[in-house]
Write a structure and sequence with these properties.
Blueprint: H1 13-28, H2 37-65, E1 70-74, H3 84-90, H4 96-103, H5 108-112, H6 124-138, E2 143-148, E3 156-160, E4 163-167, E5 180-181, E6 187-191, E7 194-200, E8 203-209, E9 212-224, E10 231-241, H7 247-251, H8 255-267, H9 283-307, H10 315-318, E11 319-324, H11 331-342, H12 347-357, E12 358-361, E13 372-374, H13 375-381, H14 383-403, H15 408-413, E14 417-418, E15 421-423, H16 424-430, E16 434-437, H17 440-450, H18 452-457, E17 462-464, H19 471-477, H20 480-490, H21 513-538, E18 547-552, H22 561-577, E19 586-591, H23 599-616, E20 625-630, H24 635-641, E21 647-650, H25 662-668, E22 672-675, H26 681-688, E23 694-695, H27 700-708, H28 714-719, H29 722-732, H30 742-750, H31 757-775, H32 778-790, H33 797-808
Parallel strand pairs: 1-2, 1-11, 2-10, 11-12, 12-16, 16-17, 18-19, 18-21, 19-20, 21-22, 22-23
Antiparallel strand pairs: 3-4, 5-9, 6-9, 7-8, 9-10, 13-15, 14-15
Helix pairs in contact: 1-2, 1-4, 6-33, 9-11, 11-12, 11-14, 13-14, 20-21, 21-32, 22-23, 22-29, 22-31
Bound molecules: ligand 26Q.
């Protein structure tokens, strides 16, 4: 059902064409036929906002009076991607707009491409938030986001001389049509200064003075639901000086000081930190974390009090604060501060309300990514917050020492403050009623290893909610031809929110040769579309009849793009040795950004590009083997890439990838996973069956066993494998056009290969060979592809959101 098509002033194609033409001509002062694509984009964006705004306002009005529980996601990243097409689809205009524009002689895709893709996140964690907002709105469920309106999003990646070069992402340069600035909802965030105590009316009162105020100004972005009347809000906070100039400083003639304080305030929301691994304790990052926590909670509290006669009683029955990884963990002490210092609750009651309101999702088990802030930094920047953390910790340890007097070592281990650092994960676990991992294996590792001491104390707090992704963006919109084919075959029940598991009906067609042929045709078109993009952007010709084997994600040692690259070198060696042997044509595609300070990951990018250059220029490989590194992986290029994939590379060292979500996006577009038993791959294998996935390598348990015994001996593996020796030597002997990769060689050979790349190499080569042989049997390959699509429904973020509702937020 599409309720927008039932209303009286429903949009028709003719009305759309008239309104659109008028809008373009008003904006551009030109006849439509003389207008630029930029004006056409702006006109379309404005029309969309004019239609969403009244519904959004109505949603806000209803949210003010109704008593449904509201969810607030606090996340330092929201990787929302382009929004125009999604708004159009959600409004139910998906058939009207493309046709209408075509009749006006315009190209819909060109217009959509004018939207600057907002890159307000690094990768999985930020994109997950965007998928969750999409699903919550689709399911008519009030969930909102709170984050930072970074002036510069994640850097844009260029490849120059085979290497990554970072370019600033000035995404707001031409304005952003989907945000509404709400200056009257600005709040002040206080940094630094000192805290003084005073008895006021017989109560010990904490007075924060000499602080530096920063103004937090909210910008709201509508989050509309699919074919329904729900519009939620994503609130992004911008940092501004409280007064444009510090007037005192200015009047005293300290002009430079005044300007400096302005730029110090603005610096807080200036840029997204481009690292998603390796915690670095930078002061500005800590400022960012407190910034959106403080501002977001202030508005939520203010709104709640307004609705409840000035009281916060009952808050935790009506509001859930969801902490996305530890970056917003200061929600815990900040909410305590509000309750105790400002609202005069007693500590115990305040603590009970806090724990009941907060829930926490962990996204990583890499020890180097866990946040630990130096005590003196936190104490100086946030003196009252630090005092409250100390008190939370003191009471917690007192309770633990009372309950478990013989567990001294453990009680020290779980302390929030130890060794001069504040452990943010401990704060988040102690201050929340729920802690969850993002795939079965990951949640098990949290319970049994990472947080095992907490699991012993609070077993009831631990949950698993396996991640999911938005099928509306990553399949229905990105792969419309596939969507249409499936709807023609099994109907459209699966396209309805929460119903994606109806795709299971496709299993009936798994061996149907007509359906298989049509599916193959769809895949071929998507491969051609990607091949065209590659030709245009990289001037590399790839053979659309070859297998498209794709690995796209952030570049990390644990994700092992290196394993993929070493295998390609091996394949190339074989081809050179036997140019006339049978060879299944293959195109290896990579994309992904490395953190600018992550030297090893940048060497891997360089290696891939060097190999690509060599292989693509060798006439021997023509139409058989090509390698492509697509620069600047982002949500928009992802939408082109997933639909074209036949093999989805998910090859992380087992136990390291919390879940992965790209694996799910590939699967719903019919790619077959080639991966380790890690993260959500394990659940993909369970659902699709072992005949329809290629798995290889050590298990998480085997990896852990090696690690408990100090690792394995990579040299032994190397000695037994001449093919691998050859590849490894090529890294350092100048075979790669004179470039050498000693850092990579040393890590694998001399430093014992922390990520088990050499250990899993032989098993990876075997499974690669097997998949290429299987591909030759088109019938059985198409069957695998269909089984993947048919069983992907469970990996919809609609299912994840429904589980959070039921198990964590406890909403009926
Ligand atoms: C922390 C401190 C300082 C600077 C940066 C960070 C930081 C920023 C981002 C740490 C981690 C991240 C992002 C982590 C992330 O994206 N994790 C991924 O989350 C996905 C969604 O749950 C999972 O599918 C992936 O497996 C996981 O790697």
């Amino acid at each position: 059902m599409n309720i927008f098509q039932e209303t009286e002033n429903k949009m028709t194609k003719e009305k759309f064409k008239r309104d659109f033409k008028k809008k373009v001509e008003e904006l551009s002062s030109e006849k439509l036929e003389n207008s630029t694509t930029k004006f056409q984009y702006e006109a379309l964006a404005q029309m969309v906002m004019e239609n969403i705004n009244p519904i959004w306002a109505e949603n806000r009005r209803l949210n003010r009076i109704n008593t449904d529980k509201q969810i607030y996601f606090f996340s330092i990243e929201f990787l929302i991607g382009r929004l125009l097409r999604l708004y159009i689809n959600n409004l139910g205009w998906e058939d009207i707009v493309p046709d209408g524009l075509e009749e006006l002689g315009l190209d819909y895709d060109n217009i959509l491409a004018c939207e600057h893709d907002p890159a307000l996140g690094n990768g999985g964690l930020g994109r997950l938030m965007a998928c969750f907002l999409d699903s919550a709105a689709a399911l008519d469920f009030p969930a909102h986001g709170n984050g930072i309106r970074y002036k510069y999003g994640l850097f844009q990646q260029k490849i120059v001389n085979h290497e990554q070069v970072e370019v600033a992402d000035n995404w707001l340069k031409h304005g952003y049509p989907f945000e509404i600035r709400q200056p009257e909802k600005s709040v002040v965030v206080k940094y630094g200064g000192n805290v003084r105590t005073e008895m006021v009316n017989g109560k010990l009162t904490f007075i924060h003075e000499n602080y530096e105020p920063v103004l937090a100004v909210p910008y709201d972005v509508p989050v509309s639901g699919y074919h329904n009347k729900t519009v939620n809000s994503l609130r992004l906070w911008d940092a501004q000086p409280v007064d444009d100039f510090d007037l005192n400083a200015f009047n005293e003639g300290h002009f430079l000081k005044a300007v400096q304080s302005k730029s110090q305030a603005e610096s807080i929301s200036q840029v997204l930190y481009p690292s998603d691994h390796g915690f670095e304790g930078q002061l500005l990052r800590l400022k960012q974390e407190y910034f959106f926590v403080c501002a977001g909670l202030k508005r939520i509290v203010r709104r709640y009090k307004k609705q409840h006669q000035g009281s916060l009683d009952g808050f935790s029955d009506k509001i859930c604060i969801h902490i996305n990884d530890t970056h917003p963990a200061m929600c815990v002490p900040e909410f305590m501060r509000i309750l105790v210092d400002e609202e005069n609750y007693g500590w115990d009651e305040a603590w009970d309300m806090t724990v009941k309101s907060m829930s926490f999702t962990n996204h990583t088990v890499l020890p180097e990514a866990l946040e630990k802030w130096p005590v003196d930094m936190m104490q100086n920047l946030l003196p009252r917050i630090y005092m409250i953390i100390e008190e939370i910790n003191r009471r917690f340890l007192e309770e633990m020492n009372g309950k478990y007097p013989n567990e001294e070592a453990r009680n020290y281990n779980i302390s929030i403050i130890k060794d001069g650092q504040v452990h943010m994960a401990h704060l988040a676990i102690i201050g929340s009623h729920s802690v969850n991992g993002v795939a079965e294996l990951h949640s098990k590792i949290l319970r049994e290893e990472t947080f095992k001491d907490f699991y012993a104390i609070y077993p009831e707090r631990f949950h698993n909610v396996t991640n999911g992704v938005s099928q509306r963006r990553f399949m229905m919109a990105a792969n419309q031809e596939l969507k249409n084919l499936i709807c023609d075959t099994i109907g459209d029940k699966w396209t309805q929110p929460g119903q994606m598991e109806a795709l299971k009906d496709l299993e009936k067609y798994a061996s149907d040769s007509d359906f298989q042929k049509q599916l193959q045709g769809v895949k071929y078109h998507n491969k051609e579309r990607l091949a065209k993009y590659i030709k245009e952007h990289l001037n590399v010709t790839v053979n659309p009849h070859s297998i498209f084997d794709i690995q796209v994600k952030r570049i990390h040692e644990y994700k092992r793009q290196l394993l993929n690259a070493l295998h390609i070198m091996h394949v190339y060696n074989q081809l050179c040795a036997n140019p006339n042997a049978d060879f299944v044509p293959k195109t290896y595609i990579f994309a992904g950004k490395a953190a600018p300070s992550y030297y090893f990951a940048k060497q891997v990018i360089k290696l891939i590009n060097v190999i690509a250059d060599k292989i693509n220029h060798d006439p021997l490989t023509k139409d058989k083997l090509s390698v492509v590194f697509i620069p600047n992986f982002n949500v928009s290029s992802a939408e082109l890439i997933y639909p074209a994939a036949e093999i989805s590379e998910q090859i992380s060292t087992a136990g390291k990838e919390a879940s992965g979500t790209g694996n799910m996006k590939f699967m719903m577009n019919g790619a077959v996973t080639l991966g380790t038993m890690d993260g959500a791959n394990i659940e993909i294998a369970e659902h699709v069956g072992m005949d329809n996935i290629y798995t290889f390598g050590l298990s998480a348990e085997e990896v852990a066993n090696y690690n408990h015994n100090g690792g394995y001996h990579s040299v032994d593996v190397l000695q037994q494998n001449p093919d691998l020796q050859k590849v490894m030597n090529q890294l350092i002997d100048g075979s790669l056009g004179g470039d050498t990769f000693h850092t990579i060689y040393d890590a694998l050979v001399l430093n014992n290969d922390t990520y088990f790349v050499l250990k899993d190499f032989a098993s990876y080569c075997d499974i690669q060979d097997q998949s290429s042989r299987d591909y030759l049997n088109h019938h059985s390959w198409q069957k695998k592809s269909i089984m993947n699509i048919a069983n992907s429904g469970i990996f919809s973020s609609d299912r994840s959101i429904a589980e959070y509702q039921k198990d964590i937020w406890k909403i009926k």
